[in-house]
Predict the structure.
Amino acid sequence: MVLSGQDDSRHREPTTTLAGWRSFVGAPPATFTLLAAGAWAGLDGDGRDAYDEARISYHSELVVVATSTLREVTRQGRLLTLLNRREISARRGLIVSGPWATGKSTALKQLGRTHELMIRDRHGDRDRIPVVYVTTPPKGSPRKLALEFARFLGLPPVRTGWNTTDIADAVCQILIEARCDLVLVDEIHNLNLATSAGEDMSDHIKYFAEHLPATFVYAGIDVERSGLFTGVRGKQIAGRCVLAATGPFPYQQEWKGLIAALETALRLHRHQPGTLAGMDRYLHQRTGGMIGSLSHLIRAGAINAILDRTEAITRDQLDTIPVDHAAQSLREGAA
C-alpha cells in the first residue's frame, strides 16, 4: 500500500489564510497504489479497516481534471499577469463567471497555484507572497473586505481607532513589500451594486486594485446578470476586465474524456475499466453536464463501493446517490 499527500494536516487550514494557501499550493496530488489481489485478501480486520480508510480519503479528493475551462482561465490569467507587469494604471483583470458547480473556484485556485509554483521555481523566495486568495463577504462592507485581506495575511487584531483605509493601507504596504502580483477574489456575486454597501465595497475593491501592482481575478455565479456591470461603477469594472464564461459541458467528446479521466483515477478492486465510460449519457443526464456534480457523484460512488465491500461502481448503485438539488432539478425538468 502506497499513499502520499494524505496526512492529517492536508488542507486543514482554509485557503483564505496564507498558511492554508501555501499548504494547498505545496501539496502533491493524492496518489494510491492498490495492493495485489493476494495481499488484499490477506488483510486482517484492522489492516483492512486502515486500508479502506486510506482509500476513502484518497477518493474524497481524487483528481483535478484539466478541463477546457480550467486551461482557458489559466491561459488568460497568465497572459494578463504578463501584460500588467509594467502597467502603472488601469491594469486589466479577469472575471470567471458561470452557473453553480461549473468549476469556477477550482479554476481560480488552480490559476493561483500554477502562478505561485512558477514564481517559486524561478525565484525560490519563501518570503514572497505572489498570490492572495480571498472571498467576498456576503452583505459585506469595505471594512469586512479589508479584514478578509488582513486575515489572509495573518495580521494581528486591528488596532483601536483604525478605520477601513488604515487597514487597507497596512495590507497594501505588506503586499507591495512581499511582491504580490496576483489577487484572487472569489464569490464576487456577493457584491450587489444595487445597494449602497455594495457600491462602497466596489469602490474599495477598486482602491485595492489601484494601490497594488497586481492582476485581479474574480469569480462568481452569473456575474454578468447579477448587476455587477450596471451603472458607472459596473461599466468601470466591465471596461477593465476580460470575461471567461463557464458552463455545463455538452454531451460531446470532452464530456466523455472527463469521465474517462475520473474513472482512471479510481482505486477499487473489482471495478471494470470502461464501466463509467459506458454510462456517459446517463451521467450527463444525472448531473446536467456540471463538472462539480459529476465529481461528487463518482467520488460518492467509489466511497460507497468501499463501504459496502462491492468494490465496483454500478448504475444501480449510482441511482441511490443523490446529487445536488440544482442538478436534480435540471434532470427532472428535462424528463
